[in-house]
């Protein structure tokens, strides 16, 4: 199973994400934002956290117009897997690969701490390693993690079991406390919490490791 981790100017979790995927058994390639193609044979594209292009305009907006962006869209359109974490989630909404938008946190403060999450859907390649309704803990580090979506879009997410994670308790004003959502084909996941920062005992917790193990195993046996 081969993964590509994208790096933009301002990315600061790309190495951590590459390590977490490698430890889960993936063959990881690093891709610079000015590249125009993904490495041959890539199964999963991973877009890391950070502050791509300084979060100017809107978080993720400039990254969504970078030279590598069309290749990411094409990969998703072919049914490829895409994972976006924190700023990566923001990039995926700007690319149009996931619905909704990430707004400024409700109390207008940067939140950087470990939080509780409920696994809302365990029916995806990313979340099958968890039990439905399981309570886990992952770190967050964001100023614009307040997930918002129109009523029709929210109804679709609920009806199609596409809410992957929810904050428990609420932290930033997200509608229904949403912390992560899936695409219609369940192959694209965007989430604000950082599983790569809770992937080995030295991090103080390993709840994030199961996400990487789950998707790598899914693709390795596909």
Automatic annotation (TrEMBL):
Pathway: Purine metabolism; IMP biosynthesis via de novo pathway; 5-amino-1-(5-phospho-D-ribosyl)imidazole from N(2)-formyl-N(1)-(5-phospho-D-ribosyl)glycinamide: step 1/2. InterPro entries: Class_I_gatase-like, PRibForGlyAmidine_synth_PurQ. Keywords: ATP-binding, Cytoplasm, Glutamine amidotransferase, Hydrolase, Ligase, Nucleotide-binding, Purine biosynthesis. One of its GO terms (biological process) is 'de novo' IMP biosynthetic process. CDD domains: GATase1_FGAR_AT. The active site is at residues 86, 194, 196. Its EC number is 6.3.5.3, 3.5.1.2. One of its GO terms (molecular function) is ATP binding. It is found in: Cytoplasm. GO terms for cellular component: cytoplasm. It catalyses: L-glutamine + H2O = L-glutamate + NH4(+); N(2)-formyl-N(1)-(5-phospho-beta-D-ribosyl)glycinamide + L-glutamine + ATP + H2O = 2-formamido-N(1)-(5-O-phospho-beta-D-ribosyl)acetamidine + L-glutamate + ADP + phosphate + H(+). Its main location: cytoplasm. Part of the phosphoribosylformylglycinamidine synthase complex involved in the purines biosynthetic pathway. Catalyzes the ATP-dependent conversion of formylglycinamide ribonucleotide (FGAR) and glutamine to yield formylglycinamidine ribonucleotide (FGAM) and glutamate. The FGAM synthase complex is composed of three subunits. PurQ produces an ammonia molecule by converting glutamine to glutamate. PurL transfers the ammonia molecule to FGAR to form FGAM in an ATP-dependent manner. Part of the FGAM synthase complex composed of 1 PurL, 1 PurQ and 2 PurS subunits. HAMAP family: PurQ. This is Phosphoribosylformylglycinamidine synthase subunit PurQ. It comes from Paracoccus yeei.
